[in-house]
Amino acid sequence: MIRVVVSPAPIDVAAEMAHAERPEVGAVATFCGLVRADDGVDQLELEHYPGATEAALTRIAELATSRWSLQAAMIVHRVGPMRPGERIVFVAAAAPHRRDALDACAYLIDRLKTDAPFWKRETRGGAATWVEARESDTTAAERWQDADDRA
Question: DSSP letter at 40?
């Protein structure tokens, strides 16, 4: 099962976990990203390109399910304005065994950070600035590239 949700609604981790848990699953690996208050951030706003964003996230989940033995690959991402401490992203990979779940979860978050069309704007003290892509995100995604090229 692939589940991709892009929404301004708060992320309910317990409800999302319920989608992944089933009798054939022995492990569910998750990642939950929170808005940081780095350098006095008051608000983070995410914009996206509807349709294209969901398609990109679905493709990432499809690649994960083709590479690992997964019963579920889930990506839930918020858009719109958020405050520090709020959940911005939830990723889950459900598999019969932990190694596939853990590796697939890492893959999902690493790839979505660079491959999905999101734009971030941070507000500090009333002044808003766009956030540039981080080199560390690109490096994390590149570790999976060779395998994706073969898929």
Answer: G
Interatomic CA distance for residues 77 and 5, integer angstroms: 6
Q: Average pLDDT by consecutive 10-residue portion of the chain (151 residues)?
A: 94 91 87 90 91 94 94 95 95 94 94 88 87 65 60 52
Residue with tokens 């301004």: 8
What are the distances in angstroms from CA 64 to CA 14, 31, 41? 22, 15, 33
Quote the pTM value: 0.86
Q: Where are the alpha helices (DSSP H) in 85-128?
A: 98-115
Measured distance CA(151)–CA(148) in Å, rounded:
5
Paired tokens of 48: 């996206």
